[in-house]
Amino acid sequence: MPRRAREKSSTGVYHVMVRGINRQDIFIDEEDKLKFVSTLKRYKEICGYDVYGYCLMSNHIHLLLKEGMEPIAQVMKRIGASYVYWYNLKYERYGHLFQDRFKSY
Question: Can you give the pTM of this predicted structure?
Fold first, then answer.
């Protein structure tokens, strides 16, 4: 059975959540959090979204974003891929870091 299509927000504002695969930590130290925030800022310039707030927990992330020039799916793909590439290099690991696709409300 195919998954349901993501519902589009009429305002373009999304509460986005991503969780570590198997609920593992995605932030081991302060450098990891700083890297994620810098990635968020870097892609804000490229994608044109607004960040209303964020909460970085040890094994998951909450973001409150408003779409800009690119749809939320493209934004999250860019942010996630960039951070995971860096994380995998730092911790000498391979594979997925995030569980499933991101949730948005």
Answer: 0.90
**Is 73 within 8 Å of 20 (Cβ atoms)?**
no
Q: What is the pLDDT tens value at each position of the chain, 105 positions in all?
A: 777 777 888 899 999 999 999 989 999 999 999 999 999 999 999 999 999 999 999 999 999 999 999 999 999 999 999 999 999 999 999 999 999 888 887
Q: Which residue is listed with tokens 């860096």? A: 86
CA pair distance 11, 88, nearest whole angstrom: 35
CATH 3.40.50.300 fits 13-104, yes or no: no
**Nearest CA to 56 among 32, 75, 89?**
32
Tally of CB atoms within 10 A around 73: 13
Residue ranges of the domains in the chain? 13-104
